Amino acid sequence: MSITFTAPQGFQYVGASLLSTVLVLAGQNFIVSKWRKRSGIKYPQLYAEKAEAAASKDALIFNCAQRAHQNTLENIPIVYVTTLLTGLKYPILAASACAMWSVSRIGYTRGYLTGDPSKRANGLYVLGALGSITLLLSSCYVVGQSILESL
């Protein structure tokens, strides 16, 4: 048995928005590596110890960079699933919300890299929250409608 899938008009934008998340992750990975090297924190140590971060601004910024990257990794499965599900019915909405989330992660990371974690929740943070909520609600709607149509 085979299944044919026809992507809706505009689905290529969903692909582009998902690719933007890969670029964000690659950028964060580069930043973490840079600050790991500058701080002298060796593998497999995930974070600088509290005393190391207190003694070295580079170690503190490494911890902040690592945390920003880790938080993005924690959230990316949700973004992927909700973007794809929403994109099945509303590809432009899905692509726009995912792109908003990606842009917000750049601001989130830049805020964290100041060494003051409270600056991670800057103006772009709201953009990411709006993107996430849009994706969550719209993906629930798409799945719910699909279930109702199949009854």
TrEMBL record:
Its main location: membrane. The chain crosses the membrane at residues 12-32, 123-144. It comes from the Eukaryota. GO terms for cellular component: endoplasmic reticulum; membrane; nuclear envelope. The keyword Calcium does not apply. InterPro entries: MAPEG, MAPEG-like_dom_sf, Membr-assoc_MAPEG. This is Microsomal glutathione S-transferase 3. It comes from Tricholomella constricta.
